[in-house]
From TrEMBL:
InterPro entries the UniProt entry points to: Acyl_CoA_acyltransferase, GNAT_dom
One term of GO molecular function: acyltransferase activity, transferring groups other than amino-acyl groups
PROSITE patterns: GNAT
Location of the N-acetyltransferase domain: 10-173
Originating species: Rugosimonospora africana
Protein name (record): Phosphinothricin N-acetyltransferase
Length: 180
């Protein structure tokens, strides 16, 4: 699906196996150089293939945003917790390639992700956002109707410091709120 992003020709579409090298590279940037994720070892392409197969097998969206045919970011909805009673709740993940932030790609990905979740029976979307010192991810989520659900203090230790996470939640039982 083409998405209107001023000044950028963006296509948001389901991820394909051929995209996973780029996805792995984007995520590796955050794993090795930031606290945006608590992973410490970047997953390889085979790991991403397994994740893609698992999520699409569950009917959950795994999307990429391309600019000029190049993968510039990705987003997916994964199970929030493994226990069966949580089956209608997912956690979202959104990552953009270095140099691609601030261009509206996160907004395009999150909008498409939220629109695709109800088809998989999703009722609640949870965002677990590492406190990196930037409010950009939380602000993006708020613009789509996510509300603060709590803060977990000092739950991650990475790059020599303790990191909090902010929990946000979006109820999908009404219409999907398109960010402003």
């Amino acid at each position: 699906m083409a998405v209107a992003v001023p000044g950028v020709d963006v296509l948001v579409r389901p991820a394909e196996p051929g995209d996973l090298g780029a996805v792995a590279g984007i995520y590796e940037h955050y794993v090795l150089g930031s606290v945006a994720t608590f992973e410490e070892v970047p997953p390889g392409v085979a790991d991403w293939r397994q994740r893609l197969d698992d999520l699409t097998g569950r009917g959950l969206p795994f999307l990429v945003a391309t600019v000029g045919g190049e993968v510039a970011g990705y987003a997916y909805a994964g199970p929030w917790r493994p226990k069966p009673a949580y089956r209608h709740t997912v956690e979202d993940s959104i990552y953009l390639a270095p140099g691609r932030t601030g261009q509206g790609l996160g907004r395009a990905l999150l909008g498409a992700l939220l629109a695709g979740c109800p088809r998989a029976g999703v009722r609640q979307v949870v965002a677990v956002i590492a406190d990196t010192g930037s409010d950009a991810s939380a602000a993006l989520h708020r613009s789509f109707g996510f509300t603060d659900a709590g803060r977990l203090v000092g739950v991650g230790y990475k790059h020599g410091r303790w990191v909090d996470t902010v929990l946000m939640q979006r109820d999908l039982t009404g219409s999907v709120h398109i960010g402003q």
